[in-house]
Amino acid sequence: MGNLLKGKVAIVTGSGQGVGRAVAIALADEGAKVITNNRAPVSKNKTNQLDDAKLARLSREDREWLDEELEKLSGDAETTAAAIRAMGGEATPCYGDIADYNAAKAIVDKAVEVYGTVDIVVNAAGSFGFAPIEKITEELWDKVTASKPKGFFNVIRHAVPYMKKNGWGRILNCISVAFLGNRVRHAEYCAANAGAVGLTRGLAWELFEDGITVNTFAPTARTRASLDMQLFNKTVDEDAMSTKDGTPLAMYNDTPLPELFAPFIAWLVSDEAKDVTGTVFHTSGGTIRRYSDPAVVAEMKNPGGWTVEDVMKTAPETLFKDYKSIVKSSFDPYAAK
């Protein structure tokens, strides 16, 4: 075990499985005391998007493969904490849904009760769903946006006072490249992740002088969500598929394990990254990418104001010179630019 985070107390939400679990273990491996978290103890292996009706539409081979992979990915806050303790680290599980303001407070309170403070928050909890915009229900919209950005806010809101008191803090929000939009039909998820980026950038400005950094990372990793991505279109009618052409955005076996990039997350919440804030990273296996900040790339001016005729004449050679919309370009949210 290393000492990069020795003496620090970390909360990792959504750390029962997948990305959150890998991050929690990586932080503990560098000496952090960790509060592990997920909504509730896992009593049955399941995906997020495939209910019993959808599962019934899978072939026998697909169902057997799904069950086998789910068994590999199963776990909860207690199993992650047990894994940390088994390697000689300190960890305490705390169940609760961060979408609930009081439950989020209870998670922070548990860290303070057990370890005395909170130094690091990694928000890795989340929800998502697939549906074309005309089929997104209010329930789906509220469920997805309740986890992020609202759930992220809930935890941060209660943790920041301790960080300010200590004059040191690290906040890291796990998002998705969906914040940029992509060909998957999940506008509610795109909105949730874009909101988390806005929250991150706003807090980076607000908290930097308090010794607190705030960043985001968008992982491509093998998780239960990867299983959903691959199998969902086999369980629904064509007009409800996650993509218009019926092909998943990525295949499960092509997605790398989150453990490969988790040490970068440990570094990012350490003293070594004290000047890194307000930044969005893409983490995929052994590849770490940093996104550029939004920038103005074209403008047009008319001090006297505009008429429609002026706009029609001027815009094509100024605002829209060399312009291509994302849907007509080679835009790829996974690619480094």
- Low-confidence spans: pLDDT under 50, at least 5 residues? none
Strand order of the largest sheet: 3-2-1-4-5-6-7-8
Terminal CA distance reads 35 Å
In CATH terms, the superfamily of the largest domain is: NAD(P)-binding Rossmann-like Domain
Tally of DSSP helical segments? 10
The total beta strand count reads: 8
Class by helix and strand content? alpha/beta
Q: What's the CATH architecture of the largest domain?
A: 3-Layer(aba) Sandwich
Overall radius of gyration: 21 Å
What features would you highlight for this structure?
single chain; 337 residues; alpha/beta; Rossmann fold; 2 domains; eight-stranded mixed sheet; globular
Write the layout of secondary structure elements.
Elements lengths: L8 E5 L4 H12 L3 E4 L15 H4 L4 H14 L3 H10 L3 E4 L7 H15 L4 E4 L14 H29 L2 E6 L12 H21 L4 E9 L3 H8 L30 H7 L11 E5 L2 E4 L17 H7 L23
Parallel strand pairs: 1-2, 1-4, 2-3, 4-5, 5-6, 6-7
Antiparallel strand pairs: 7-8
Helix pairs in contact: 1-4, 1-9, 5-6, 6-7
Q: Mind explaining what this structure looks like?
A:
This protein folds into 2 domains: 9-41 and 76-221 and 256-290, NAD(P)-binding Rossmann-like Domain (Rossmann fold, 3-Layer(aba) Sandwich), CATH 3.40.50.720; 296-337, no CATH class. The chain is 38% helix and 12% strand. The protein contains 10 helices and 8 strands. The protein has an 8-stranded mixed beta sheet, sandwiched between helices. Strand 4, helix 6 (138-166) and strand 5 form a beta-alpha-beta unit. Helix 1 packs parallel to helix 4, helix 1 (18-29) packs across helix 9 and helix 5 (101-115) packs parallel to helix 6 (138-166). The longest helix is centred in the middle third of the chain and has 29 residues, at 138-166.
